[in-house]
Amino acid sequence: MAKYEALIEWEASPSDDVAGGKYGRGHRWTFDEGVVVPASSSKHVVPLPWSLEAAVDPEEALVASASSCHMLTFLYIAAKAGYPVRSYRDAAVGTMAKGEDGRVQITRVDLFPEIEWQGPAPDAETLSRLHHDAHDQCFIANSVKFPIEVMA
User: Fold this and answer.
1) Which of 10, 17, 86, 88 could cross-link 116 (Cys pair, CB 3.0–4.6 Å)?
2) pTM of the model as a whole
3) What span, in angstroms and rounded, lies between the C-alpha atoms of 101 and 119?
């Protein structure tokens, strides 16, 4: 159906001690048309100064991808159902812990959408159905093994 590409680049600096584990984890993600995102390991996994606090880490990116996919799918579904959205804000939270298999992983993502409607808001039951349908059709939600829950 579609193919998605990203170029990931890292290079040791002359002062890095890669064999000793003392090297910078900062790197670049390059996407379509040359959009470059500074990236790094999470400071929760690899302590500073080896991680870059001002860069996106893979775990944050995964949480953002889950939230973004849900939002984009929700906007489409809500508009088709007659509930166009004026604004949507989500302070999503991902939790990393040991999974059932004992390995450290993202074990869940909680979404906290705040929605302003262009017209009348749907009732609670309809809103719940819109979120359920968005989750059901979200490509990212269909690609991961952890739960993504709307905490609205």
Assistant:
1) 86
2) 0.92
3) 46
- Cα-only R_g, the chain: 19
Residue 18 CA to its chain's centroid (Å) = 29
Model confidence over 96-135: pLDDT tens digits? 999 999 999 999 999 999 999 999 999 999 999 999 999 9
Element (H, E) at 125: helix 124-137
Cβ pair 49, 34 in contact under 8 A: no
pLDDT at 31: 95
Angle at Cα 148 formed by Cα 95 and Cα 90, nearest 5°? 80
CA pair distance 99, 90, nearest whole angstrom? 25
Q: Which residues pair with 117 in a beta bridge?
A: 85
Q: Quick one: how many helices (H) and strands (E) in the chain?
A: 2, 8
Question: Per residue in 37-48, pLDDT tens?
Answer: 999 999 999 999
End-to-end CA, the chain: 33
Residue 44 CA to residue 128 CA, distance in Å, equals: 34
